[in-house]
Amino acid sequence: MLSFKYKIDARLDDIDINEAIQKSLLQSWYLVSTSAKKNAPYRTWNLRRSINPDFTEVRHRKVIVWSNAKYARIQELWGRITPKRSSYLTWRSKWRWYRAKEVNIKGKFYMLNALKENKNRIYNTFLKNIKNEL
């Protein structure tokens, strides 16, 4: 079993680290959501508009970025679309009608890429806000 002895500086008692963490989470959410909106595929802009934060967990040190679009999960990861009521899927482009038994969608990873792009900036945001509290 390991044990450590440490001495806490008296100045650290006055610091509210939770406030710095909450501020950092909100700033990090802004970085990730704007990057995810920029990376998201668009045709009607509905997916980009639907990327939202959930601030209910900020007190528990969590911020959730989500989308309420029905097709957001398939666009992020991957998926297979099959017809529910008929035997074929039908859709129209500008000049032509298409028909298929199923359609495979490759993942675009717009949320994951947003996290990867901003990894260093998020880390620096936390460091800066904690240093400001000290």
SSE order and pairing:
Layout: H1 17-39, H2 46-49, E1 51-54, E2 64-67, H3 72-76, E3 79-81, E4 89-92, E5 97-100, E6 103-105, H4 110-117, H5 119-133
Antiparallel strand pairs: 1-2, 3-6, 4-5
Assembly category: single chain
Radius of gyration, Cα only, in angstroms? 22 Å
Strand content: 15-25%
- The tally of domains stands at 1
Number of strands: 6
- Terminus-to-terminus distance: 32 Å
Number of helices: 5
Mean pLDDT: 81
Shape: elongated
Helix content: 40-55%
Low-confidence stretches: 1-6
- Classify the secondary structure makeup into a structural class: alpha+beta
Largest sheet: 2 strands, antiparallel
Helices and strands, in order, run as HHEEHEEEEHH
Order of neighbouring strands in the sheet with most strands: 1-2
Tell me what the structure shows.
The model is unreliable at 1-6 (pLDDT under 50). It is elongated and about 65 Å long. The chain has one domain. It is built from five helices and six strands. Helix 1 (17-39) packs across helix 4 (110-117) and helix 1 (17-39) packs antiparallel against helix 5. The strands form three sheets. It has a two-stranded antiparallel sheet. A two-stranded antiparallel ribbon has the order 3-6. A two-stranded antiparallel sheet has the order 4-5. The protein starts with 16 loop residues before the first helix and ends with a helix. It is 41% helix and 16% strand. With 134 residues, the chain is of the alpha+beta class. The longest helix is centred in the first third of the chain and has 23 residues, at 17-39. The relative contact order is 0.20.
